[in-house]
Amino acid sequence: MEIKLTVNGTTRSDEVQPRLLLVHYLRETLGLRAANVGCDTTSCGACTVLLDGESVKSCTVLAVQANGRSVTTAEGLVAEDGTMSAVQQAFRENHGLQCGFCTPGMVMAATSLLAENPHPTEQQVREGLEGNFCRCTGYHNIVRSVLAAADKLSGSSEVPGSEVTA
After folding, report:
1. For 69-94, how does the pLDDT look when each residue is reduced to its tens digit (9 = 90+)?
2. What does the record give under GO molecular function (predicted)?
3. CA nearest 26: which of 43, 42, 10?
4. Vertex 127, ends 157 and 108: CA angle to 5°?
5. For residue range 37-58, what is the model confidence (pLDDT) as tens digits?
6. In the chain, how long is the greatest CA-to-CA distance?
7. What's the pTM value of the predicted model, to 2 decimals?
8. What is the end-to-end Cα distance of the chain in Å, rounded?
9. Nearest CA to 134 among 89, 85, 91, 81?
10. Contacts of 159 (CB under 8 A, 6+ apart)
11. Per DSSP, what are the bridge partners of residue 46?
12. Domains of the chain, with CATH numbers?
C-alpha cells in the first residue's frame, strides 16, 4: 500500500506492507533510530512518538494507520541548527537518562504531557509517564527533568510541542 505522511516536518510517500508497524517503518524505511523496539506489546514505551501531536507507542500502530497524518520522533524535536528542545535539554541537564534506551520514548511522552499540562505536579508527571519504563534510573531524575522542562518552558515564549512540526 502507498502511504503519504509527514515525518519530522518532511512529507513522505512510500510503499509499505499493510502489516508493517510504524516503529519498523520509521527505523527500517526512514533510518530514524530514536524510536526503539523494546517489547512489541505496548508495555515499555521505548517506541513512543507523536502522532498528530499525541504520544503513541509506535509498536502497536500500523504504518498505514499513519497515512495522511504527522509523525514526530525525537529526531524531529531538534531544531535545524542542532539546538535540542527544552525537554531534551532538561533531560541532559538533569541527568534524566542512564543507558539511554528509554530516553527518546520518555522525551516524547514528556513533550506530549507538557503540551497538555504545561505546569504539572510531580505526581502528574509520574502518572503521565506511567506507560514508559526505565530499568536504570529509578525515575527520580526523569521526573526532575520533566519538571525542569516545564519551568524552562513557562519562562520562555516556547510552547510545549511548538518545536513539533505539524
Report:
1. 999 999 999 999 999 999 999 999 99
2. 2 iron, 2 sulfur cluster binding; metal ion binding; oxidoreductase activity
3. 10
4. 50
5. 998 788 999 999 999 999 999 9
6. 45
7. 0.90
8. 23
9. 91
10. 115, 118, 153
11. none
12. 2-77 (3.10.20.30), 86-154 (1.10.150.120)
